[in-house]
Amino acid sequence: MSIHEAHGTYTPTSGIGKWIDARMPLPRMMYDSFVAYPVPRNLNYAYTFGGILSLMLVAQILTGVVLAMHYVASTGMAFTSVESIMRDVNHGWLLRYMHANGASFFFVAVYLHMFRGMYYGSYKAPRELLWILGCIIYLLMMATGFMGYVLPWGQMSFWGATVITGFFTAFPLIGEWVQELLLGGYAVGDPTLNRFFSLHYLLPFMIAGVVVLHVWALHVTGQTNPTGIEVKSKTDTVAFTPYATIKDAFAMMVFFAVFAYFIFYLPNFLGHPDNYIEADPLVTPAHIVPEWYFLPFYAMLRAITFNIGPIDSKLGGVLVMFGSIALLFIMPWLDTSKVRSAVYRPWYKLFFWIFAADAIFLGWLGAKPAEGIYTMLAQIATLYYFAFFLIILPVLGLIETPRRLPNSITEAVLARSKKSGAQQVTSGAAASPETRG
Amino acid sequence: MSEETITADETTRRDFIYVASGMLGVVGVAGLAWPFIDQMRPDAAVRAAGQPVDIDISSIEPGAAIIVTWRGKPYFVRRLTETEIGAVTELTDSDLKDPAPAEPRIGGPADEATKDWVVVAANCTHLGCIPKVVDSGADGWNCPCHGSVFDFTGRILRGPAPINLPQPPHVFADASTLTIGTDTV
Amino acid sequence: MSRVAQNYGNRTMKHIIATIGAAAVAMTLVMPGAKAAEEGGEEHTVHYPLQKPVEQDWSFAGPFGKYDKGQLQRGFKVYANVCAACHSLKRVAFRDFHELGYSDEEVDAIAAGYEVQDGPNADGEMFTRPALPTDYFPGPYENTEQAKLANNGAVPPDFSLIAKARGVERGFPLFVFDVFTQYAEGGPDYIYSLLTGYGEEPPAHIEVPDGLYYNPHFVSGSALAMAQPLYGEDVEFDDGTPATIEQEARDVAAFLMWAAEPHLTERKEMGFRVMVFLVLFSVFLYLAKKQVWSRVEH
After folding, report:
1. pLDDT of residue B104
2. What is the arithmetic mean of pLDDT over A290-318?
3. Residue A210 backbone phi and psi in degrees, to 5
4. For chain C, does the N or the C end have fewer beta carbons within 10 angstroms?
5. Which of A43, A48, A84, A93 is the best substitution to test chain C (most C C-beta atoms within 10 A)?
6. Where does the pLDDT of residue A432 fall: very low under 50, low under 70, confident under 90, or very high at 90 and above?
7. Is there a contact between C134 and B51 if contact means CB atoms under 8 Å apart?
8. Which candidate from B2, B40, B43 shows the least CB-CB separation from A428?
9. What is the spatial distance between Cα C178 and Cα A59, in angstroms, rounded to a whole number?
10. In angstroms, what separates the C-alpha of A265 from chain C's closest C-alpha?
11. Which of A180, A102, A94, A211 is nearest to A148 (CA)?
12. DSSP A8-52
């Protein structure tokens, strides 16, 4: 089997431990997966976001479940029930702000996690399925976040829902039928709100299920690492506990500190004032904007202001928006490079950082009114987004000259510690790496 | 191996860091858990609605009874006639399923000489139905569901109810106001 | 790949980059021209408010901010005597007023000064009675239609959340600095600026329709349906503070911030304790991490 499966290291010593192990090897599985499991020793902090994401999922589920004890999913009561949580429920304001800002921080972490994957080639063979499962989690997160934002029934909740469900009318023939199916009516209303609440409660548990598959797929292949070369020997790795555990714990605490800063001092910074106005189907807000984590896609949607043959601009925008997400799924096959990590791919590194800037730029554009110079900028930025996946990734792999790769992770680590010189390493460890692990 | 080169000082320092981190972790988890538990306790609106209620009793004549609610539950406020008080005092312990003296159960405003008020829960202590107000001999309440009969002070005389109608905390704030929900003015 | 092919690849690479770079430079030169043409030409998109809100000092701003109860009481007086004629405060209950520093008796008295609807009574009719602390602030109108009728078709918005429902985009780079200065007072700044923003004559090119009043601080246009509500000396403050228009506007804005976010003080106090704990915990975890990893090369 792969080097990443640590068989037979779990030996229960207590009576209960042996009893359970003989009947259901779950503690053994937990031990093999999270204690003895070997991880590359050169993982940097960019690799801690998986753990952070798990923590955020748990946080959202816990805060969500307690909020659901007080929330009422009806158009007449939703807004009031949220205000009752904010004003009267013991610590209700804290739980609500944790949940609302938690959604934003969930997306901060997922974007950093995805960008790490793109930079270090974590999507490349043999981790394609791992990457695709991640894309599925991302899709489920977007659906959950979208439906969750509708629940407080503010102006942005209502009108955002109206705009997004309106996309489906872009599709010829079946568009309106699909829209009415989603809405449960002819416009966003009580049926819509009720089903969004039901699905918003359900989807996170489906996310949890896909996360289990995601971690399973990861444990079959093992983690990538900043060098992009596979683990070759035991000296390349350290045990997950205590090394990765403590590093993840520290990273989680730093992330949590930033999260807490927003909850306590800037709880409405990432939101929109208009959502503190109760939804009114007869009053359209001046600027309808989705939450920040959807802004890049919103910019791409609005960038298509022209018809392409039989495809009108509305349908074109919808296709471009869905297409931009669909491209992620096939990224493993678009990239032709034999080299995994951007550390050794200087041109890819350049285009990657332009892509990152482009994504942020698209996000900024998504909040701007869709007029004047902003339209042209959004079109250019969308062009680069698609060019990155469809042109740069395939072509670069064929013509780029990568830097010389190290022979092993151990070699890379030793080279780096020799260079820095300040590493406190006892002579025993350096002289006989084979005895470790 | 490296363990031999670790001094005793390093061991204590290392242990301190791990123990301190662990303890901070426990404190953190406890602090984080409290709001999740606390949010289930009654919120400010419910607590406010559950404050004692003041009832205007100035228009209730002897022989009359009303039902009021406090904290979502119904209570009888009944003013007894002299005959009814007489019927109550004649009962002995052998007539009662749940013997208790009558006098403490009859109250009234502090500056009134005659005490003729009874305040009891309106849910039958059998299965919770609201008994009917009657005036027949010593019978004060008759529960239609399963036939429990209570006297004018709410003590169970016969029927399946096991105990007397309980009395809520209450106090006569003044001659025309009864406060249910507290024993003090 | 052969060295020839590699060299060719690198040269093509450089070629591509150079072309893109040139295009980018060309665009940067063209763009300002395009922007100027767009602005001076067909679409002159006006952005409201015409004047951004004037930042004020608020006692509740910053990490150690808290409400000034005296200010909140003055602000409540302004609301009750001036604003409540048209604007409801339907999500605030009289019992919440304990937070303003009023005693039980004072809260009962404030509530009793308002009539609320109750019923039906034993005759099957609705009736009015003095409010109790458990009641919510009664609004001036029974329903939206009545409000529209009394106000030229415009509905005066409810004030319970107005301080959080108003905010003006700060733009880049201000919104980045705001994260570090913890600027969260956009709502009160807007309310203050709007209330003190009347009185200017509209410039020649702005036509103010009948029934509307010019105010450059208004977020949705150049003129709004509310006439100037405060002139100074509209109320007399119990604590003797001079009731200038600036004072009244500031106090009522603070009161409205409390109405929208009553738990602000508690939130920031808890935040301090939480941040201290998290920073401390992070330090310990960092030391623990360093300790664990000191055993291996990495």
Report:
1. 94
2. 94
3. -70, -30
4. N
5. A93
6. very low
7. yes
8. B2
9. 26
10. 6
11. A102
12. T-----SHHHHHHHHH--HHHHHHHHHTS-EEETT--GGGGHHHH
DSSP state of A70: T
User: Cβ contact (<8 Å) for A62 and B36?
Assistant: yes
Identify which of C93, C288, C295 has the shortest CB distance to residue B17. Answer: C288
Q: What is the pTM of this model?
A: 0.89
CB of B142 closer than 8 Å to CB of B165: no
Structure tokens at A388: 């990155």
Residue of chain C whose alpha carbon sits nearest to that of B18 = C288
User: How many Å apart are CA B170 and CA B185, to the nearest integer?
Assistant: 9
List of residues 6+ apart from C102 with CB closer than 8 A:
C73, C110
Mean pLDDT value across residues C110-132: 93
Q: Which residue has the tokens 């499966």?
A: A5
Share the mean pLDDT of chain C: 88
CB pairs under 8 A between A and B: 41
A264–C294 CB contact, under 8 Å: no
Catalytically annotated residue among B101, B146, B158, B169: B146
Tell me the one-letter amino acid at C279. Answer: V
Partner residues linked to B68 by β-bridges: B75
Residue C23: the pLDDT is 59
Contacts of C287 in chain B (CB under 8 A): 17, 21
- C-alpha–C-alpha distance, residues A371 and A379, integer Å: 12
- As beta bridge partners, residue B73 has B70
Q: Which residues of B touch A435 (CB under 8 A)?
A: 1
Which of helix, strand or coil describes residue B73?
Answer: strand
| Active-site residue, B146 included | yes
Contact C277 B27 (CB under 8 A): yes
Q: How far apart are alpha carbons B129 and B132 in whole angstroms?
A: 9
Residues A149 and A421: their CA atoms lie apart, in Å, by 51
ipTM: 0.90
Question: Quick check: A86 pLDDT over 70?
Answer: yes
Each residue's pLDDT tens digit, B31-75? 999 999 999 999 999 999 999 999 999 999 999 999 999 999 999
C-beta of residue A387 within 8 angstroms of C-beta of residue A399: no
A232 and chain B in contact, CB less than 8 A: no
C204 vs chain A: nearest CA distance in angstroms? 25
Which pLDDT tens digit goes with each residue over A220-261? Answer: 999 999 999 999 998 899 999 999 999 999 999 999 999 999
**Chain B nearest-CA residue for A242:** B18
C25-41 burial code (b ≥16 CB/10 A, e <16)? eeeeeeeeeeeeebeee
> Range with the lowest mean pLDDT among A46-55, C25-34, C206-215?
C25-34
Q: What is the pLDDT of residues B68-104, one digit of tens each?
A: 999 999 999 999 999 999 999 999 999 999 999 999 9
Q: What is the mean pLDDT of residues C270-298?
A: 93
The reported pLDDT for the residue numbered A132 is 98
**What does the DSSP 8-state code read for residue B95?**
G
What percentage of chain C reaches a pLDDT higher than 70? Answer: 85
Rounded-to-integer distance, Cα C203 and Cα A231, Å: 72
- CB nearest to B28's CB, from C133, C277, C291: C277
Nearest to B35 among A87, A94, A429 (CB): A94
Do C275 and A268 make contact, defined as CB atoms within 8 angstroms?
Answer: no
Q: Could you give the C-alpha distances from A172 to A175, A312, B137, in angstroms and in order?
A: 6, 10, 83
